[in-house]
Amino acid sequence: MPKLIVAVDDEEDILKALSITLIKEGYNFKGFTSFSKLPDFLKKNTPDLFILDIMIPGVNGLDIYKELRKNARFEYTPIMFLSAKSDEVDKVVGLELGADDYITKPFSLKELSSRIKGIFRRIGNVDQKNDKTVVKGIKINKEGLEVFVDNKKTELTFAEFKILELLLNNKNKVFSRDEILDHLWGDNKLVTDRTVDFHIKNLREKIGKYGDKIKNARGVGYKFED
User: What is the dihedral of CA 109, 53, 201, 86, to 10 degrees?
Assistant: First the structure.
């Protein structure tokens, strides 16, 4: 069954271009120019990816993101932010909130399509035969994208989940920031290594006392120390 992609952007021309491109790529697509009609649509439909414009008047993309994450159905659904802003700070804010990708306008439809394929490829790679990792009170369920700290479920963004998975599966091995970015976004990364620091900071806080096990190898990168 084709994956369903939902976009919210106040520019109808962009929604039309997305519709033509993504349907041609084999996806189902639904576009909205505002948030108002989205809740009713979501009652009967479960998108596989959201594309949200940060700068929509009224209820903007960041607000929509927060509302979606409150719903257990969309807790781990990939979200991509669009924005006319090109400032690196805006990218970091979007990714720090937990977005899976961020692209600035104007963008090429070919690049967007490549980013989307990359997101779905990363999600597909999460489900493996060895679907559980247990280390020092932390259990990762790869199939369900779930993390338990001392048997208590802990909410992580997809990026935080992937970083924790990488570090736990390679205990005591130092990964550079570039290597972590490659693990997260592959060839599609357009952010600086500061983004990794934001994710690590949030990850340390969320896993509580085990956060101290994520060590910063000064000038190199990060590792989970066993």
Answer: 70
Q: Which residues of the chain have pLDDT under 70?
A: 85-99, 123-134, 136, 143-144, 186-193
Handedness of CA 208, 163, 84, 6 (dihedral sign): negative
Pairing of strands 28-32, 4-8: parallel
What are all long-range contacts of 185-192, with beta carbons under 8 Å and residues at least 24 apart?
185/101, 185/118, 185/122, 186/118, 186/121, 186/122, 187/118, 188/101, 188/114, 188/115, 188/118, 190/91, 190/102, 190/103, 191/88, 191/91, 191/92, 191/95, 191/102, 192/88, 192/92
Both 121 and 137 in one domain: the answer is no
**Alpha carbon of residue 220 to chain centroid:** 24
Question: Which pLDDT does position 126 carry in this prediction?
Answer: 43
Nearest to 121 by CA among 208, 187, 165, 67: 187
- Cβ distance 113 to 120 under 8 Å? no
Number of folded domains that form the chain: 2
Distance, in Å, from the CA atom of 28 to the CA atom of 73, rounded to the nearest integer, reads: 19
Q: Do residues 144 and 184 share a domain?
A: yes
What is the crossing angle of helices 158-168 and 177-185, to 10°? Answer: 120
- Token digits for 131? 């679907």
Same domain, 135 and 161: yes
